[in-house]
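Chapter summary example.
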Amino acid sequence: MQVELKIDSAYVEPKVVIMAASATEEVNWILKRLSEEIPQVLSGKKDEKIEVLEEAEIIKVYANGGKVFAVTDKGEYILRLRLYEAEERLDSRRFVRISNSEIINLKKVNCFDLSFTGTICVKLSNHTTAYVSRRYVSKIKKILGI
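The structure predicted for these 146 residues follows.
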């Protein structure tokens, strides 16, 4: 992707023009992010305190027992969002859903173990293991280029 900035005093407000051969997933993601007015941050509750979570620090987000949790190296936080809402706020180029109840940060994956028949075992940076459900195996293989 090429990025270009032109400074012109004729423009009172910034104007963004995207030129592409077709409306790809990346183009749609950029359009969505540019049109959002509310900053898309995740905040989590831990020890009666609310903290803003940095996307780069999130290892995984999962649902369990009617609640949604975000796991970082600093611990586990309760989110006041549904899993699909958290998924919408997270960068789709970095985070991927691996089951109906779990989203992982691809940058926090140590390895993918494909030796299990019909599923994929994911070893995360915090030394935990997650499993890709059968429904999402083809999507993960496509991301991995296999």
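To summarize the output: The chain has a mean pLDDT of 89.
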